[in-house]
Amino acid sequence: MTLVGETTVVRARVALGGTVQGVGFRPFVYRLAKELELAGWVSNSSSGLVVEVEGPPERVDRFLERLEAEMPTAAVVLTRETSQLAPAGFRGFEIRPSDENAATIAGVLPDLATCPECLAEIYDPSDRRSGYAFTNCTLCGPRYTIIEDIPYDRPRTTMRGFAMCPECQREYTDPADRRFHAQPIACPRCGPKLWTETPGDPIEQAARVIQTGGIVAMKGIGGFQLLVDARQPDAVARLRQRKRREEKPLALMMASLEMGREYCHVTTAEERLLTSRAAPIVLLRPNGKPGIAANVAGSSPYLGVMLPYSPLHHLLMRECPFPIVATSGNLSDEPMATSNEEARTRLGEIADLFVMHDRPIARPCDDSVARVVRGRESVMRRARGFAPLPVFVGRDLPAVLAVGGHLKNTVAIAVGQQVFLSQHVGDLDTPEARNAFERAIEDLCRLYRFEPQMVACDLHPDYASTRWALKSGLPVVEIQHHQAHAAACAAENGINGRYLGVAWDGTGYGTDGLIWGGEFFLADGAQFERIAHLRPFRLPGGDAAVKQGWRSAASVQLAALGPDAVPDRPERSVVLQMIGRGINAPWTTSAGRLFDAVASMAGVAHESHFEGQAAMLLERQIGELASDDCYPLREGDWGPLIEAVHRDVGRGEAVARIAARFHNALANWIVSVAEHAGERRVALSGGVFQNGYLVERTAALLEARGFQVYTHQRVPPNDGGIALGQAVIAALRG
Ligand code: ZN
Ligand code: ZN
Ligand code: FE
Question: Distance, CA 358 to ligand 2 centroid (Å)?
Fold first, then answer.
């Protein structure tokens, strides 16, 4: 928010997809904005309609409500993403010409959760689609995961092998029918079929296997999922062991919102997210009710909950009136299996039963993960339900292909004023993942008829994505990792001009060749001045320290307290030597590694089985504790902080207090840097800001001092968002 004269002004942007063009939507928006005396603009885009309004917060809220309630009757809104943006100082309201650069692109919609009408049909015993797992209409069903090429028409989808029966044909060609031109239209007579390799009803069998503690592999919308009963710790443990996912939190599917409320606190904003057409996994606070096995959430302070989003899921959950674990059908961090053959080979050792069907999946698309941060939706993993919706950046960009980072990879293309982000690809450690990465690039380029003029990549020379970029034969722009984080946050929040970018994460290659991760930039477009960072410390063993947080602890303990403070461990002396001699112990300014160090000192975690685990555990320790106590962290010097942690641990202080004091110290340091920097706008980005406590606290402290705080909404704060930042910076530099 910003003060203009005496009044507070906010700017909101709404991107609507569906049937929103040629139905009188723009004049309606214009009249509504004029009536409420809001400034801004409305424009058609390739993927729908974009509206921005600016004015007092109450009137902007009223606009957003009435936009929904009073829209033209012929309009069908299938996707809607709202963002709060930095105010732009608009005067008046205008209908802007359509985005010409993007005019040739056919809008490809994401996969949409089953609509109420279709749901009623599958539950109606007299309906011809009763119990049919592939029921859909123009308002719901698969889109992005079935489209092979544009324009979006049945012969160019994976439904092309299914000839419509006369009844489906009639619905498809009747303009008055709900299924008029519904490309994935199907019925039990002519559409995809469900089966298992053993005789009997597939859904009943699946429910029985789940109830008796077995593992079901089920082909869903964007790939195979693995399902087990979430109430049975042994079943969950078996899934973890077979899938080689020892520690990462697992997501839950619950039959209904009511069931979600049984186990979790659900706010209005969270309810909206759960029941949205995107139907992502939503991170919710558990309410303490027993019943869900402890090894489902693992280290996480949250439960990841989603509601059924396809008829198949609805039918299964009707037979499973209890929470089930629903996780990607893959081994460890590989991409999900999408074809029946692939599933049999790759998941054969994991699943006790396969539920398969014959509708091919054009591209893998994991379940998305989102949460509510500062009262707003924030996407942590952008895939099913969101991909491939573009992010509007408000200025024309040249044709840049951005290849993202190494972990949680996504790729992006800049077309006109829009950046199209791929679905979450994953960590590029395996050949399978690198294949998926190359396919995602080909896919985006083909679907959008896109010919890149340059490639943006990370500065890290060893990232698989960087190596791909350097071999592409195109001009390459290398972008520093944390600058890309900050730019992504600025871009999606519509920040123009100067801002303070706070980019904190586990690891990123710095312009000085060192490992960065606790960075502050005074930024303006593609200009970045690094004005502050965490005091560097050595990372004994390099990558080994990422997995073994006690190594980071040893490093800061040695520096701040001397060798006697470093606890005894099998590799202690080797590690101390590495630090002392500076051999295989690169310098780092990583905030993520400082989290690891404090987590280890507090006895919370000495190792991490996945990136960020120790930090997650430390955050979880705070629980409901409300405390303003804090450790010293002046100018990012962690020395006194480490001494204080050491003292607290020595006198048996509660871990919750240690965790809170540490988080509070980080928040206070950000505030003090912001005060020195003298920029009112502060953007928080990087994987560390997935930490709910840290984000909420930092934002609250900054706002109380009059700063405007920007956090991620539509792209992830983690490395899943950096392709957007790369595209924007490359466009400005190139
Ligand atoms: Zn429907
Ligand atoms: Zn049919
Ligand atoms: Fe990062």
Answer: 15
